[in-house]
Design a protein that fits this description.
Shape: elongated
Strand content: under 5%
Order of helices and strands: HHHHH
Oligomer: single chain
Number of helices: 5
Number of domains: 1
Largest sheet: none
Helix content: over 70%
Distance between the termini: 49 Å
Length: 122
């Protein structure tokens, strides 16, 4: 097989790309993100900060990433804000050992943003 043909075969087609989540699926993932962040907050308050950081990371990767593309089409600024708040700010605050009240305020702000994301995806 000539090199160019091998490269083209290896690239695949557009059908090999993952499909974007539907708005309905994205709304379900908003709810799952909300639940996961509440669980992480409870874990943090119980004193297991490292596990709480892991739970936030898992919430982002397993749930919020499914929200990003559908939300981007509706409210890109909100998507960017939530992405940064979950992936960076919340995890950074938890890793720094900030007081539980500060973490709770941060989570509540994110939850409010998730409510807006849910509404935008309707």
């Amino acid at each position: 097989m000539p090199l160019l043909a091998a490269v083209l075969v290896g690239c695949g087609s557009d059908s090999s790309k993952p499909k974007a989540a539907s708005a309905e699926t994205a709304r379900s993932e908003v709810a799952a993100t909300r639940d996961a962040l509440n669980t992480a907050l409870a874990t943090y308050k119980a004193g297991d900060h490292a596990k709480a950081v892991d739970q936030v990371s898992e919430a982002y990767v397993s749930h919020f990433e499914e929200v990003e593309e559908p939300l981007e089409g509706k409210d890109d600024e909100l998507k960017e804000s939530l992405e940064h708040a979950i992936a960076d700010d919340l995890r950074t605050d938890m890793k720094a050992g900030r007081p539980a009240a500060a973490i709770e305020r941060r989570v509540n702000t994110i939850l409010s943003g998730l409510d807006k994301a849910d509404a935008a995806l309707r």
